[in-house]
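Good morning C.,

I know you're traveling, so I'll keep this short. The sequence:
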Amino acid sequence: MIYLDSAATSFQKPPQVLRAAEKTLREAASPGRGAYGAAMKAAELMLEARENAAAFLHFENPERVVMTMNATHALNLAIRSLAVPGGRAVISGFEHNAVTRPLHGYGLEIDAAGEGLFDSEGLIRSFRKKLPGAALAVCTHVSNVFGYTLPVREIAALCRDCGVPLIIDASQSAGVLEIDAEALGADFIAMPGHKSLLGLPGSGLLLCAREVKPLLFGGSGSDSISQEMPADLPERLEAGTQNAPAAAALSAGISYIMSRGREKIEAHEKELCAHMAELLRKQDGVELFLPPRGEQSGVLSLRAQTKDCEQIAAELSGAGICVRSGLHCAPLAHKSAGTLRTGTVRFSFSPFNTHAEIEKAAAKFIKII
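The tokens, ready to paste straight into the viewer:
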């Protein structure tokens, strides 16, 4: 199998990630629910995961690193905390349904900015125009469809100037691109554990730089007499028994990235993406979605005139090549790029892919079309 769908989830995991999850299952119980050894071990692993994530993401306070079920959970928490029914939310034209559906569900008006693909200057101008008077802003760091790296630093600065709280969706960047939470100054940064952070499905993080509203209510292991959720983080947002094995695995994934070198991983994935593009760019009837400058991560979307995207993905799957096709849970991004009717075939790369795999996948794609 050649796995080229890492923008959905990282399938290959470093051995230490798997070992960390298994070791936790064998040795740890429920964090924050007892003073005996196995419970204390679980609490220590949760704290270690927060501290590891905070150090990696340059976030000052590990206690404000909240463990979530995924990025969708984290984004719902952030949006709920800022939502003003009837208020206006300014978002990029490349947001995932994990952003647009909660905004719709909380009754906010959605105002999409800068809908041109790979047009960062236009995006900045559009945010500058639309931000005044907005209740909140949301911007993805990287488009999950096109690998487009958005100018989040500039957008964060505009939000600060306008006094508009900002949520950054780092689902496609955390673990590959640099994230300096302190420098960005966003109110919330959400990310999954199972993508480029190389952890397990069912894990995620929310960095909280401001006060938050709970989404779930229940036991927290502290202040049990009160019928209100605890005032302090992380307990305020972590109702119920937390997933210590997933937290330990996520921490191990972050440690792997730091030991291998985030910059090396970023360079490797971009190199594979460029290699695939070079192999396919001269094929008749193939449209590659590529930026004029270096605004792309390790994700390549394309479509062919001769065959439907879903059919191409099915035939690649039959040859043991795993890709994603269709709208990728991001119809707004496809609308912005003009691909809403057709969708695209998406190749997304990981630290574990090789140039030989890219060449085999490209050759099979060419044969199919």
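Safe travels,
E.
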